[in-house]
Write a structure and sequence with these properties.
Number of strands: 11
Helix content: 25-40%
Keywords: Methyltransferase, Transferase
Pfam family, one: Methyltransf_23
Number of domains: 2
CATH topology of the largest domain: Rossmann fold
Order of helices and strands: HHEHEHEEHEHEEEEHEE
GO molecular function, one term: methyltransferase activity
CATH architecture of the largest domain: 3-Layer(aba) Sandwich
InterPro entries: SAM-dependent_MTases_sf (IPR029063)
Strand content: 25-35%
Strand order of the largest sheet: 3-2-1-4-5-11-10
Protein name: Methyltransferase domain protein (Type 11)
Distance between the termini: 50 Å
Number of helices: 7
Length: 217
Amino acid sequence: MSFSRLYETLVSDIDYGDIEVFLLDHLKKNQGVLDVGCGTGIFSLFLKKQGFDVTGIDSDSEMLAMFEEKQRDMQLHIPVFEHDIRKPLNRTFNQMILLNDVINYFKGVKQVLKNLSNALENNGQILIDFYKEEYLSVMKDYVEDEVSPVVYRWEIFVKHCQMTHQITYKEQVYRFNQYIYPLNYYLDRFKEVGLNSELIDGPDERKHYVKLTKKDN
């Protein structure tokens, strides 16, 4: 099984209801939404069914293929594009979301944020979440052995600001890294690329939630 399909299986039983309420509370239905790091379309599909005009981008072609499979099954159409957000976007959007700790997958975030800022329309907004710094100590040497929905082991190793996930399924071992920095690191990067930041309440107490808007010229 590929990592993308395994990951989709492992998160299939997560209840995203609180995040869906969060999205409806903060997004404007009359404005388009770019789902950055959309994966297999968890949030894009929800927003589409709520009447939003959604576009999805992700750098993982297999996850996008799974997203398109879901669309066909649901008889929905959402434009999706394979794109690495470390590269500039070729159009602008009024609203963007980077949820499910997408930003934590980047070791450095300034270029990513600069590209997003350049693609954000005036008076637009970006909703973003990222792990709090104390999450590193909470997850150090974490081990999870599960038998449902499949038999697997999920381990986490922490070194400085890097959190390495290791998932063992049958005889396959998959690894990926996330990077967790102090809140002020992110606030400084937002400011450097011309974005105002406002901390807002969100559904997951392990994370910071921030609303970003363009600075006034």
